[in-house]
Amino acid sequence: MNRFVDKTGIRYFAFLLIILAGVSPCRALSIVTGPYLQNPSGTSMTVMWITDRKCTSWVEYGAGDSLDQRAFNSRHGLIDADQTIHRVTIEGLSPGKKYAYRICSKEILKFEPYKVAYGQTVAGDVHTFKTLCGNRESISFIVLNDIHERDDMFETLMKLAAADPYDLVFLNGDILGHIEDEPQIIDHVLRPCFEFFAREIPFVYVRGNHETRGKFARMLPDYVTTPGGRYYYSFDHGPVHFIVMDSGEDKDDTSKEYSGLADFDRYRDEQTMWLEREIRTKASRKAPFRIVLVHMPHRQSKDWHGIDDLYNKWRPLFNKGKIDLMISGHTHRYAVVEPEEKVHNYPVIIGGGPGVGEATVIRVNAEHGKLEVTMTRDDGEIVGRYESD
User: Fold this and answer.
1) What is d(CA 207, CA 220) in angstroms, rounded to the nearest whole number?
2) The domain 31-130 belongs to what CATH superfamily?
3) 259: left (phi over 0), alpha (psi -120 to 50) or beta
4) Which part of the chain has CATH 3.60.21.10?
5) Which of 81, 99, 82 is nearest to 90 (CA)?
6) b/e per residue 250-267 (b: at least 16 CB within 10 A)
7) pLDDT, tens digit, for every residue of 56-67?
8) CA–CA dist 382, 385 (Å, integer)
9) Model pTM greater than 0.85?
């Protein structure tokens, strides 16, 4: 019996099997996308990123240029581990202050009850962010809507917006179409945001009706962070009290397109009860400006159930709450709708659609007791203006 074994051949055969299986034995741990900033406040900032393998992760940060502190996410006494989507909220910060940070992830090779084997560690570049501040007298923010996965249009609009600084970016719905998988969210939202601004400026995701569709739509909250994990909430920055609402779908819940899986009428009722309380809060009543971000505009249609439902339920409350400005999208027709007494006592700015010659970026400057709105089309032409009295 021949006992000789060609070990070189065995190693080569094993290596070939690994390659055929799509796994490289020398492949380095990598960051798929991120960091991107979420859920800003005066005392906290959430940092998110995605790795190509399961890790435990943390953020190194500090005031100024220092990275002398560390933050990680833990729940019920356990630090997050063995996952690819990473979400770390840095708390205890000071309002209106600049911080440096970088993300770090350590690969987990084996996860046993009493022993965890770690692999590589990867660290991102150093970036900075500023916390929100209620005492600032002026702020600027921009709004994009209805991109519908047109990455070229996203780039065009962000380059137009880069002419002047801004503090926040609102993605006001239908940045995506129906959501089928994770790569779609990465390729058409997270990576473009990271490349253009989100490493240092947070974005606020306002859900559109197209982002309620598709088998992966229910996973979208895994990739964005909102207060309380809801798509409707409020927060303050400078002189503005922001109210973010989720308008849901445009058709009736029983429409055949939803296959019996829609419950938006009751969801809008839930938001109505919240809005009734929200407009009575001190933050809302005392703010110099109250601005609503919602995907579908509050204009009676008589054809689209969802639009009419929110028009009937929310419009009276917005009038009662003395809203100063509403910014919407959905129609793919940009417009500046002046206030109409006893109908909507506030202007409604409606952004455009995804096509060439109809896409827009909206800029709002709140300063010196005045709101200034400029809507710029993708060719650089200003197609809408509004100034408060």
Assistant:
1) 9
2) Immunoglobulins (2.60.40.10)
3) left
4) 139-387
5) 99
6) bbbbeeeebeeebebbeb
7) 999 999 998 889
8) 8
9) yes
